[in-house]
Structure formats: structure tokens, C-alpha cells
Amino acid sequence: MKESIKNFILIFSSMLFLLSLVYSFTRPKSQEAYQFHAYLRNTFDDNGYNVLKQGMEQAANDYKIELSFSVMEEDGEQQVDLLKQEVEAGVEGFIVEPKQEPFDFNQAITVPFVYVNQQELVDQIPVVSADNHQSGYVLGKEMLATTNEQGRVLVVRPKVLYSENSENYVGLQQAFSEQQVAFDEWIIEEGQIDSLIQHLSEKKDYLGIVSLSLELSEALGKAKKQEKTFENQALYGFGLSNQLLNFIEQGVFQGVGVSNQFAVGYAAVVQLMSQVSGEYQRIPGIDTLFITKENLFDTDNQKLLFPLIQ
Fold first, then answer.
1. pLDDT tens for each residue of 55-66
2. Nearest 5°: phi and psi at 290?
3. Which of the listed residues 22, 72, 102, 158 has the most CB atoms within 10 Å of its CB?
4. Could you tell me which residue ranges the Periplasmic binding protein domain spans (predicted)?
5. Which domains does the chain have, with CATH numbers?
């Protein structure tokens, strides 16, 4: 009896050993982390952070993805050469934030792409962006709702607009058209704001000034604090930075349209992973807000403005 039990245990142990060997040779290899690379307009702002980048980093951490970053090149051919080198090094997908018009990558690069903050679909490449047209429309409506006066609006813009700011502009114009409000356009080179200050010292009856550039918004805010010529002028803009939030809190800016760039970055990584893996992934929604001094510290707004703190 004891001998039979010993034989049974020996046979059972041998079978377990054989099964473990078979499993070790036949089981699927563990999935190595995907390697993605993101090319952004700027990897950091003046305060040392980038909300779009933070959203991408959070998604990469959640989904165990190796994600690296570089700044977009100005020259298209040089950018394509860099992409080819990345593919040869093992990169499996790219996220690209075009500075102006998107480069024609599709013919040269075979791995999946995702564009962020781009106006429309390019060569069937997926685009992840907030509804910037709606953001512009809402800002225009909210600005006009604060006054019963008749007059014109001044739109200040750089010579070259990013795609999302072009959409903001279209939304603004729709709001102005519906309310039958005329507007002037002032194109300004980066950092050259003196001519605008002079213009405002001569013409002070604008209903409000809207900036279509984060950099211009910050420059206008600083000028408003220093120049008495338009210290009572209502200012509006688009984008997010610590400086701009401070201007809102101080009452220097009356309102700012903000898109959830953290969600844009997060969704871009999820979208790219879905393309590479061939598996459906739910893409999170992307919100936009109109931020004023009155709603700056609302709980929901704070979650959008400071997503990593919540």
C-alpha cells in the first residue's frame, strides 16, 4: 500500500514537471512595452512644464509604454530623416504636434501616427484635439454678454496662427456675426507690442481685446499692468499658463478659453496604442472651459487646470 502511494506521488510529480516544461516552451512571450515618440512644438513652457506632455506621460505610465519626447524641427525633410532614424531604432508609433501645416510623413514613414492640436484629418491620420471652434464661439458670446454698449472688438493675433488658434478665430467670428458686432484685426510680430500700445492710446472705445496667442496674451497682460493707456480695457485670450491664471485672478484678464490639454495628451497615447495593438481603447472626452475670476477656483475648473494635483 505504501509502495503504491509512493509510485502515485512519483508519477504525479513527473507529470507536473512535464506539464511545466511544455507550458514554459509554448506559452506566449510577455508583451514588451511599446516604444512611442512624441514630437511637440515645445517640451516645456517658461515655467518648466507642459500640460499636454504631462497627459502623455500619465497615459504612458498607466499603460506601461516607453515614451520619449523631442521638439519639432522647422525643416520638413530634416524631420522626416529623424523619424526614419527613430523607426530603425525600434520606435513603433509617433505623436506629432504640428507647428503650422503638417509635414507629409505618410509616404515616408510606415508606422502609425497620431496628430494632436491639428485642425482636420490629414491623409487618414487620426487627430486628437479639443473643440477649439466651440471654445472660440463661447468666449465671443460670453464677452459680448458682459456689455450692453455698442462698439467694435479688437482681435490681436500673430502673423502665423497655430491650427487650434485658427479654429478659435472661426468660432469668435461666428459669435460676432450672430450678434452683428464688427471687429478689427491687428497682426503683430512676436515681442513687438509697442505699435499696439500706441494704437490703443489713440483708440480707447473697443468693447474688448481678444488675443489669439498665449505669448501675446501674456505680453498684453504685462502691458495692461504697466500702461495707463488701456488699464481699463477688457482683455480676453486662449491658452493656459501660470502667468495667465495670475492675470485672471488679479482681474487683468476678464476671461480665457482653456482646452483640456492634459486630456488631449492622454487621449493621443491611447489612440496610438489602439492603432499599434489593433485593440479598441476607449478615448476619454476632452473638455473646454471659459475661465473668469469668478469661476477660477470652482472645483471642476481646478481639476482641468491642475490635473496632476487632483
1. 999 999 999 999
2. -110, 110
3. 102
4. 45-279
5. 35-129+262-279 (3.40.50.2300), 132-259 (3.40.50.2300)
